[in-house]
């Protein structure tokens, strides 16, 4: 996972007007499932692969209790934990933490398709209904575009699809978007969630930009591909951009391409603390999504994550169809 300095988006304005104070503090009328948080315990023996000890913003335990103290007052009733470790044992650690906290509706773990033990581990983990899929892309020294050619890799992704589980991507860039498109073309029926698409750098070269937009257009035609509007808050000249107009055009471009049925919410907590406190992140998100109708907001905040991940309700205040 990488730190962020500037959200690489084409913006309609660079103002930094303050958001209405109430937007950050008032709970949402619509229940929210946060489809992208990270959990880890920096006090565990041996430490954790991420974050680094030098990361003073993040290097402290990220627990469901700490998260909900921030999120519950803002209308969040559930969350999905996305892997923050390449260690095989941490799939079980994450499932154990989630099992003890009903606010967690699921986890996305870390397995490497094509590894000798992949199918056995996939079958074992899939027995737990909290296990929703795996994340793979350009994290942990991996390269999806190259790994697709490894023996057994595509077969592993086909097994993932047959199990009804999801493939989350990682930090997007044009190369990873092309690799995700290749996956979608080779593995029919695989549910794919593109994480942090608003943070993807857009090529300046006209030909490269056309190719990137063409790849996104093809992905948008696949009804099994979903997009997280996560990693939204941006720093401009070292300061948080708070003017809703700054975010409107680039987010509209994603929303209009993929449609209201396949765009979902993820905060990226606590990684988001590098840019903005959780309440500010939510205020920026609401500044954009509040312009949509109630039905579209419900889809964004929970219905689309249910369609993508097929999570199960664990608490009375969590929504269900």
Structure description:
An 8-stranded parallel beta sheet has the order 1-2-3-4-5-6-7-10. It is globular, with a radius of gyration of 19 Å. 37% of the residues lie in helices and 13% in strands. By secondary structure, it is α/β, with parallel strands linked by helices. The N terminus is likely disordered. It has one domain: TIM Barrel (Alpha-Beta Barrel), CATH 3.20.20.140. The chain has 11 helices and 10 strands.
Concise summary:
With 321 residues, the chain is of the alpha/beta class. 37% of the residues lie in helices and 13% in strands.
Provide key terms for this protein.
321 residues; alpha/beta; TIM Barrel; eight-stranded parallel beta sheet; two-stranded antiparallel ribbon; 11 helices; globular; disordered N terminus
Please tell me the CATH architecture by its name: Alpha-Beta Barrel
Radius of gyration: 19 Å
CATH class category label: Alpha Beta
SSE-based structural type: alpha/beta
pLDDT below 50 for ≥5 consecutive residues: which ranges?
Answer: 1-26
CATH level-4 homologous superfamily: Metal-dependent hydrolases
Strand content: 5-15%
The share of residues in helices is 25-40%
> What is the count of distinct domains?
1
Biggest sheet overview: 8 strands, parallel
Strand and helix order: HEHEHEHEHHEHEHEEEHEHH
Number of separate helices: 11
In one word, what is the shape?
globular
- Terminal-residue CA separation: 34 Å
CATH fold-level topology? TIM Barrel
């Amino acid at each position: 996972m990488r730190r962020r300095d500037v959200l690489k988006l084409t913006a309609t304005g660079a103002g930094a007007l303050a958001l209405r104070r109430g937007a950050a503090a008032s709970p949402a009328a619509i229940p929210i499932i946060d489809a992208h948080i990270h959990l880890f315990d920096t006090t565990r023996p041996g430490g954790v692969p991420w974050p680094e000890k030098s990361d003073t913003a993040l290097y402290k335990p990220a627990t469901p209790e700490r998260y909900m103290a921030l999120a519950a007052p803002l209308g969040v009733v559930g969350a999905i934990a996305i892997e923050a470790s390449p260690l095989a044992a941490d799939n079980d650690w994450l499932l154990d933490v989630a099992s003890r906290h009903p606010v967690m509706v699921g986890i996305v773990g870390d397995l490497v398709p094509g590894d000798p033990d992949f199918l056995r581990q996939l079958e074992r983990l899939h027995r737990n209904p909290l296990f929703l899929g795996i994340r793979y892309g350009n994290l942990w020294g991996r390269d999806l575009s190259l790994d697709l050619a490894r023996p057994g890799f595509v077969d592993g992704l086909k097994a993932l699809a047959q199990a009804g589980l999801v493939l989350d991507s990682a930090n997007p860039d044009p190369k990873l978007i092309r690799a995700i498109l290749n996956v979608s073309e080779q593995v029919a029926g695989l549910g794919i969630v593109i994480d942090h698409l608003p943070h993807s750098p857009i090529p300046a070269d006209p030909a490269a930009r056309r190719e990137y937009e063409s790849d996104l257009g093809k992905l948008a035609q696949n009804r099994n591909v979903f997009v997280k509007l996560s990693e939204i808050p941006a720093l401009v000249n070292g300061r948080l951009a708070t003017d809703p107009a700054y975010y409107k055009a680039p987010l509209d471009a994603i929303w209009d391409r993929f449609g209201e049925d396949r765009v979902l919410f993820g905060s990226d907590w606590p990684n988001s603390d590098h840019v903005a406190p959780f309440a500010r992140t939510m205020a920026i998100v609401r500044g954009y999504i509040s312009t949509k109708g109630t039905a579209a907001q419900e889809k964004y905040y929970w219905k689309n994550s249910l369609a993508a991940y097929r999570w199960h309700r664990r608490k009375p205040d969590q929504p269900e169809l």
